[in-house]
Specification:
The complex is a heterodimer of chains A (425) and B (433). Chain A has 425 residues and is mainly β. Chain A has helices at residues 12-25, 104-108, 198-203, 254-261; strands spanning 55-67, 91-98, 121-124, 128-137, 151-153, 177-182, 188-193, 207-213, 229-230, 240-241, 243-252, 275-278, 310-313, 317-324, 330-334, 339-344, 347-348, 359-361, 363-366, 371-377, 382-388, 406-412. Chain A has four helices and 22 strands. In chain A, strands 11, 12, 14, 16, 17, 18 and 20 form a seven-stranded mixed beta sheet that branches. Chain B has helices at 4-11, 13-27, 169-174, 215-223; strands spanning 44-45, 51-62, 68-76, 87-91, 95-102, 119-120, 123-124, 128-129, 135-137, 148-154, 159-164, 178-184, 205-213, 236-239, 265-267, 279-285, 291-295, 300-305, 308-309, 320-322, 325-327, 332-337, 368-369, 388-389, 396-402, 409-410, 413-414, 419-424. In chain B, 9% of the residues lie in helices and 31% in strands. The chains are: A mainly beta (425), B mainly beta (433). The interface between A and B is large, with 89 and 80 residues.
Chain lengths: 425, 433
């Protein structure tokens, strides 16, 4: 949290005036200059020719909001449930929303309607990606003027301007926007999060997944048919998959969320998680279908729109993408199915001499800030659990029964499901 | 909460007052050796005969929020208290002798995890038991207040190792009795291990010795109170005995007299002709929990773990790239890193395809910034006069920190703790540095 009276440098009056004006009106979309075509760089290393890099545009908004932990979690007064929460909700959060294509008025209306986990993003290698971030401010905390940023976690050879660390570049003030540019050259599973007062904004929910699809998808190997999907440019088809499911692993410390809503201060070194989440939900909410934060049909899960249920046909090759933006290690395990770890931190497990070093296991350790790509061959039809082997993380707020970081792998008889249309679908 | 100075002024005012008193006290603890010149990167302690005389002493370290912490540490016997111990650099296969002198009020010792055939005063180093079979130390110790013991071993395979207390380990290691031992491959001092593909630029070699501090426990030891290491809560998180932003200060910064080692990585972009070799970072965990260390802006290639080159039995390369190195307690990881100017942005010929917002539409946090006000390497824009520019010539800065983000704080205050910065200068360098 950043309070007005703690700010030193910039003129408070200028900021206040500017912020109020912009937030009240709408959000401006920054001008973009397209790279000139036909001009090589001075060194001739990488001509920025138009057409080589398809353009993708995304508009994200950062704001606050309210979400719901699983029903039946025990009260932890005064922190949980939060007395300020609107009906149906119990926990204060910060988060991102995908507002691509919405009008300025519609975007402004999302203030106070953050979602967790953040929208899942996917692009192709060599795309030219323009992500505009609008800071809508915090509806519950108008006294704060926290900036927001996008940190594309794991992006190699980044330049600070687009790395999202406010102390080393800049943050987006309330009522303003900023366009980040990325041209990813390396396939894999990454993540993104706000880096403004990172320990707070990450814990509050500004965390999401982003993955980059390999060039090999456009030129299948091994005689695989057109349309075959791979996790990496493996050259041998070893990362081919039929369906993919991604999991943002986080913990949620109720007391910290309560204090942020109630104008109190946290000592982050007291960190003590209350809930353990996959894609922003604790079990059994992890099993509910994906929703749309613009419609109310999902009720208390409206702002936790991403399912964690894995569905596939017997015999399918299934890719699981795990990212951890919590502050604890997690050991994701499956009984009765062998898991093959093909990549860590968006790097194929292959030496510089081409030696493949995949790891077959039934438990995958993911530390804070790490990612794993895991492939399994779906066995016979049935239900299998995917869960954190740290059993103390398999509850909701210390309550009885199962909860936390757990979901199901539902295997249907071969041929039941048609081709997958999107990740986690 | 943002601004370190503002935040702390309000939140830790009382602590700072106490700290000031303690710091004054610590300055009287004895004559200080002549100040060493400042420098960057790994500073090795070497000896022609590989004989190192270390003294376990007590003293104080300072934290960026104005606290002063009572510590124990290994320092050169000819010097004074310091945290952490000096980096002992030796060559694989050579005979190493470490003489420990103890000025502390209780026995202490050194273990060398990863080395074999260690002797203590000429006898095999082994656990020490009482007559009734209770263990008192993992190895032979030096008596309290004046004792000494000599350890000897033949340096093992190339890599990075801890040396640390083997006596009352949960307390004494927390108190600061740890240091780094670097073993270089014979004949190849500019390789991390025996493999030629571990070559690095010896001018850009770094140790990141990671640890944490529970100030309450340290206060208990200082007062002679019983301490409960099982219920310790760390509040400070360190690289080479310093917390961000002190990690950015050079080695032997005058204002950190007992914390001589910085942790800022300072490189130029990779260039096949002029800058072909990567930097080497040697990660070591002297704590009791994982430290998931995340460098921004660059993957790192882990080539050695716990002194063992990552290679198959037939010499296959089993090194791997990571954007987050989850260093386990007692573990070492040696990692090669570089940064490549892949896009070659140039304002005239290859412009960044977005515009920098007007200055009033940027949020620059704090009274100073490392940002150059430009996206281009080697270019600087202008800042309002009320913001101090730390940027010299348009160099890039990337942060690198623990991603268990409560460890990237100073007692909860963000942008601190186990964090440092990677500085990337333009190819021609900065005129001022």
């Amino acid at each position: 949290m950043t309070e007005m009276n703690r700010r030193g440098p910039l003129s408070r009056r200028t900021l206040l005036t500017g912020a109020a004006g912009a937030a009240g009106a709408a959000v401006m979309v920054g001008a973009r200059l397209t790279a000139p075509s036909g001009l090589g760089s001075a060194t001739g290393l990488r001509p920025a020719a138009a057409g080589v890099h398809p353009q993708k545009t995304v508009h994200l908004a950062g704001t606050d909001g309210w979400v719901s932990m699983p029903q039946g979690a025990p009260a932890d007064p005064p922190f949980f449930p939060d007395s300020l929460a609107p009906a149906g909700f119990d926990t204060y959060v910060f988060g991102f929303r995908d507002v691509t294509g919405l009008s300025a008025t519609q975007v402004a209306a999302q203030r106070g309607h953050a979602q967790i986990s953040a929208p899942m993003l996917s692009f192709d290698e060599e795309d030219d990606i323009f992500i505009t971030l609008s800071n809508l401010g915090l509806l519950q905390r108008p006294d704060l003027f926290d900036g927001h940023t996008l940190h594309w976690h794991g992006f190699v050879n980044a330049i600070p301007l687009f790395d999202g660390v406010p102390e080393l570049s800049l943050a987006v003030p309330v009522g303003r926007d900023f366009t980040y540019f990325y041209r990813p050259h390396d396939a894999g599973t990454y993540m993104y999060h706000c880096h403004f007062e990172d320990v707070e904004h990450v814990q509050m929910g500004m965390t999401g997944m982003v993955f980059i699809r390999p060039k090999q998808n456009k030129a299948p190997v091994n005689g695989d048919p057109v349309g075959t999907k791979y996790a990496y440019n493996d050259g041998d088809g070893s990362t081919r998959y039929d369906r993919e499911f991604a999991f943002m692993l986080t913990e949620l410390w109720s007391a910290a969320h309560y204090r942020d809503a109630h104008i109190q201060v946290n000592d982050w070194t007291d960190y003590a998680a209350s809930f353990w989440l996959m894609n922003g939900r604790g079990y059994p909410d992890t099993l509910e279908p994906s929703g749309n934060p613009l419609v109310t049909a999902a009720g208390r899960l409206q702002y936790q729109p991403i399912t964690s249920t894995v569905t596939c046909n017997a015999g399918d090759r299934v890719l699981l993408r795990f990212s951890n933006l919590g502050y604890q290690n997690h050991q994701m395990s499956v009984d009765n199915i062998d898991l093959t770890v093909v990549a860590k931190d968006a790097s194929l497990l292959r030496g510089r001499d081409g030696t493949t070093n995949y790891l077959v296991t039934n438990g995958v350790d993911i530390g804070p800030g790490e990612s794993r790509d895991v492939i399994f061959a779906a066995p016979t039809a049935g239900e299998y659990l995917l869960y954190d082997r740290n059993y103390s993380y398999l509850d909701n707020g210390g309550g009885p029964g199962y909860g936390g970081m757990m979901t199901k792998i539902v295997v249907h008889p071969a041929g039941t499901l048609g081709p997958q249309t999107a990740a986690n679908a | 909460m943002r601004n370190l100075t503002h935040h702390l002024a309000q939140r830790r005012y009382a602590a700072a007052l106490v700290a000031g008193t303690l710091a004054l006290g610590s300055l009287t603890l004895g004559a200080r050796a002549e100040a060493a010149p400042t420098s960057e990167g790994l500073e090795c302690l070497t000896d022609a005969h590989n004989t190192f005389s270390l003294t376990a002493r007590d003293g104080y370290v300072s934290t960026p929020d104005g606290n002063s912490i009572y510590m124990w540490g290994y320092g050169p016997s000819s010097g004074s208290f310091q945290l952490p111990g000096p980096v002992l650099c030796v060559t694989a296969g050579t005979h190493v002798r470490v003489i420990l002198h103890n000025t502390l009020v209780e026995p202490t010792s050194i273990v060398f995890p990863g080395q074999s055939g260690v002797t203590a005063d000429g006898k095999p180093a082994q656990p020490q038991l009482t007559d009734t079979g209770s263990m008192t130390s993992l190895t032979q110790s030096a008596d309290a207040t004046g004792g000494s013991v000599t350890y000897e071993f033949t340096a093992g395979s190339p890599g990075t190792y801890l040396y640390e207390s083997g006596t009352d380990v949960a307390k004494q290691v927390q108190m600061g009795l740890y240091g780094a031992l670097v073993v270089r491959p014979a004949g190849h001092p500019a390789q991390a291990n025996d493999r030629s593909d571990s070559a690095f630029d010896p001018d850009h070699e770094y140790v990141f010795l990671l640890s944490e501090v529970d100030p309450d426990l340290h206060l208990g030891v200082e007062r002679g109170d019983p301490v409960d290491v099982a219920h310790s809560t760390a509040r400070y998180f360190m690289i080479n005995g310093r917390s961000m932003p002190d990690t950015l200060a050079p080695n032997h910064a005058s204002w950190l007299p007992n914390q001589p080692y910085g942790a800022m990585v300072h490189i130029k972009p990779y260039d096949a002709q002029t800058n072909p070799h990567p930097a080497l970072i040697r990660y070591l965990n002297a704590g009791s929990v994982n430290y998931p260390f995340h460098p921004h802006g660059s993957d790192e290639r882990v080539v050695t773990q716990d002194g063992s080159a990552l290679a198959g039995s037939g010499g296959q390369d089993l090194s791997y790239l990571k954007y987050d190195l989850d260093v386990e307690p007692g573990q070492s990881l040696d990692a090669l890193m570089d940064w490549r100017d892949v896009e070659q942005w140039d304002p005239a010929t290859n412009p960044i395809p977005t515009q920098l917002p007007a200055i009033q539409d940027q949020l620059l946090v704090g009274p100073d910034t490392w940002f150059s006000e430009s996206g281009y390497l080697g270019k600087k824009g202008s800042l309002p006069t009320n913001i101090t520019a730390n940027n010299e010539c348009g160099e890039y800065y990337h942060v690198a920190h623990s991603h268990a983000l409560q460890q990237a704080t100073n007692y909860g205050a963000t942008f601190g703790g186990m964090m440092t910065v990677f500085r990337i200068d333009p190819p021609a360098g900065c005129p001022t540095s």
